[in-house]
Amino acid sequence: MANRKMHIIVGAAAGGASAYFLAREQEPAHQLVETLGGVLVGVLGGATPRHHRARASSTASQRRARSASRRWADQYHARRDGTENLLAQVLWWLAEMACRLISGALGGIAAGYLSHLVLDATTPMGLPLLA
To answer: Residue 129 falls within a domain, yes or no?
Structure first.
Protein backbone atom coordinates (compact mmCIF):
# COMPACT_ATOMS: atom_id res chain seq x y z
CA MET A 1 0.00 0.00 0.00
CA ALA A 2 1.35 3.42 -0.95
CA ASN A 3 1.98 5.89 1.83
CA ARG A 4 3.09 9.53 1.80
CA LYS A 5 6.78 8.64 1.54
CA MET A 6 6.14 6.37 -1.44
CA HIS A 7 4.00 9.08 -3.11
CA ILE A 8 6.87 11.55 -2.74
CA ILE A 9 9.51 9.16 -4.10
CA VAL A 10 7.44 8.00 -7.07
CA GLY A 11 6.05 11.48 -7.78
CA ALA A 12 9.54 13.01 -7.74
CA ALA A 13 10.88 10.31 -10.05
CA ALA A 14 7.95 10.62 -12.47
CA GLY A 15 7.99 14.42 -12.44
CA GLY A 16 11.76 14.57 -12.90
CA ALA A 17 11.74 12.02 -15.72
CA SER A 18 8.93 13.85 -17.51
CA ALA A 19 10.62 17.25 -17.16
CA TYR A 20 13.95 15.75 -18.29
CA PHE A 21 12.32 14.27 -21.39
CA LEU A 22 10.52 17.52 -22.24
CA ALA A 23 13.78 19.48 -21.90
CA ARG A 24 15.88 17.02 -23.91
CA GLU A 25 16.70 19.57 -26.64
CA GLN A 26 17.87 22.24 -24.19
CA GLU A 27 21.39 23.10 -23.12
CA PRO A 28 22.57 20.74 -20.33
CA ALA A 29 22.36 23.40 -17.60
CA HIS A 30 18.83 24.35 -18.65
CA GLN A 31 17.84 20.69 -18.81
CA LEU A 32 19.16 20.19 -15.28
CA VAL A 33 17.16 23.15 -13.90
CA GLU A 34 13.97 21.98 -15.61
CA THR A 35 14.49 18.43 -14.30
CA LEU A 36 14.95 19.85 -10.81
CA GLY A 37 11.62 21.67 -11.23
CA GLY A 38 9.93 18.38 -12.12
CA VAL A 39 11.45 16.66 -9.10
CA LEU A 40 10.35 19.49 -6.80
CA VAL A 41 6.75 19.10 -7.96
CA GLY A 42 6.83 15.46 -6.89
CA VAL A 43 8.40 16.26 -3.53
CA LEU A 44 6.17 19.23 -2.73
CA GLY A 45 3.04 17.68 -4.21
CA GLY A 46 3.01 14.55 -2.07
CA ALA A 47 -0.31 13.11 -0.93
CA THR A 48 -1.05 15.32 2.05
CA PRO A 49 -4.77 15.96 2.21
CA ARG A 50 -7.21 13.16 2.67
CA HIS A 51 -9.33 12.63 -0.46
CA HIS A 52 -6.72 14.40 -2.60
CA ARG A 53 -7.89 12.38 -5.59
CA ALA A 54 -10.71 14.83 -6.22
CA ARG A 55 -8.33 17.47 -7.61
CA ALA A 56 -7.00 17.47 -11.14
CA SER A 57 -5.13 19.96 -13.27
CA SER A 58 -5.81 21.00 -16.83
CA THR A 59 -3.10 19.61 -19.08
CA ALA A 60 -3.83 22.17 -21.79
CA SER A 61 -3.39 25.13 -19.46
CA GLN A 62 -0.19 23.59 -18.07
CA ARG A 63 1.17 23.23 -21.59
CA ARG A 64 0.38 26.87 -22.41
CA ALA A 65 1.93 28.10 -19.16
CA ARG A 66 5.02 25.93 -19.72
CA SER A 67 5.39 27.29 -23.24
CA ALA A 68 5.07 30.88 -21.97
CA SER A 69 7.61 30.20 -19.22
CA ARG A 70 10.12 28.86 -21.74
CA ARG A 71 9.51 31.80 -24.05
CA TRP A 72 10.16 34.23 -21.19
CA ALA A 73 13.31 32.31 -20.23
CA ASP A 74 14.60 32.63 -23.79
CA GLN A 75 13.82 36.36 -23.76
CA TYR A 76 15.68 36.81 -20.47
CA HIS A 77 18.61 34.85 -21.88
CA ALA A 78 18.75 37.18 -24.89
CA ARG A 79 18.57 40.25 -22.64
CA ARG A 80 21.36 38.87 -20.47
CA ASP A 81 23.54 38.36 -23.55
CA GLY A 82 22.70 41.88 -24.74
CA THR A 83 24.06 43.75 -21.73
CA GLU A 84 27.53 44.27 -20.34
CA ASN A 85 26.32 45.39 -16.90
CA LEU A 86 27.28 42.60 -14.47
CA LEU A 87 24.39 43.25 -12.08
CA ALA A 88 21.90 43.21 -14.97
CA GLN A 89 23.43 39.96 -16.26
CA VAL A 90 23.01 38.33 -12.83
CA LEU A 91 19.40 39.51 -12.53
CA TRP A 92 18.49 38.36 -16.05
CA TRP A 93 20.16 35.00 -15.31
CA LEU A 94 18.12 34.61 -12.10
CA ALA A 95 14.91 35.46 -13.97
CA GLU A 96 15.80 32.99 -16.72
CA MET A 97 16.55 30.16 -14.27
CA ALA A 98 13.34 30.86 -12.33
CA CYS A 99 11.36 30.53 -15.56
CA ARG A 100 13.15 27.30 -16.44
CA LEU A 101 12.48 25.89 -12.97
CA ILE A 102 8.79 26.76 -13.36
CA SER A 103 8.75 25.24 -16.85
CA GLY A 104 10.16 21.99 -15.48
CA ALA A 105 7.69 21.99 -12.62
CA LEU A 106 4.81 22.44 -15.04
CA GLY A 107 6.21 19.66 -17.22
CA GLY A 108 6.32 17.29 -14.25
CA ILE A 109 2.82 17.91 -12.92
CA ALA A 110 0.96 15.56 -15.25
CA ALA A 111 3.39 12.66 -14.74
CA GLY A 112 3.46 13.22 -10.99
CA TYR A 113 -0.32 13.33 -10.82
CA LEU A 114 -0.64 10.16 -12.89
CA SER A 115 1.84 8.37 -10.63
CA HIS A 116 -0.24 9.41 -7.60
CA LEU A 117 -3.37 7.97 -9.21
CA VAL A 118 -1.60 4.69 -9.88
CA LEU A 119 -0.41 4.53 -6.26
CA ASP A 120 -3.86 5.48 -4.96
CA ALA A 121 -5.34 2.55 -6.85
CA THR A 122 -3.31 0.24 -4.58
CA THR A 123 -4.78 1.63 -1.33
CA PRO A 124 -7.75 0.08 0.50
CA MET A 125 -9.83 3.13 -0.44
CA GLY A 126 -8.92 2.50 -4.08
CA LEU A 127 -9.45 4.92 -6.90
CA PRO A 128 -13.10 5.91 -7.32
CA LEU A 129 -13.81 6.00 -11.03
CA LEU A 130 -17.16 7.71 -10.60
CA ALA A 131 -17.04 10.37 -7.93
So the answer is: no
Dihedral sign, CA of 107, 59, 64, 42? negative
Dmax (CA) of the chain: 60
Whether 107 contacts 25, CB under 8 Å = no
| Domain coverage including residue 28 | 4-120
Specify the number of domains making up the chain.
1
Q: How far apart are the first and last CA of the chain?
A: 21
76-96 per-position pLDDT tens digit: 999 999 999 999 999 999 999
128 domain-assigned: no
7-21, 81-95, 113-127 — which is least confidently predicted? 113-127
130 found inside a domain: no
pTM for the model: 0.76
Contact 15/110 with Cβ under 8 angstroms?
Answer: no
